[in-house]
Amino acid sequence: MSYYAWKVSASGRPDFEGIGTLSDLEAYLDASGLPGASPSRPIIEWTLRMQHKGQGYYKEPTNSEDRWSLLWIELAGRN
Prior knowledge:
Elements: E1 4-10, E2 16-20, H1 22-32, H2 41-50, E3 55-59, E4 68-74
Antiparallel strand pairs: 1-2, 1-4, 3-4
């Protein structure tokens, strides 16, 4: 099982940082109330397909007031 460090940034909210599995990240996004974050499975799948060297990025394509972003990095040696 792989572990990841992630950061979610959203306008008008403090940044949220976490460490865990992608299932943990999915649960956080589903419960976050961020626009377009739920269901989060497609977001996780998209970032996995588009990752580069163990890093994934996502920016929610909503208007600027609701926009949020996700950055995750796979942690080496924690598998």
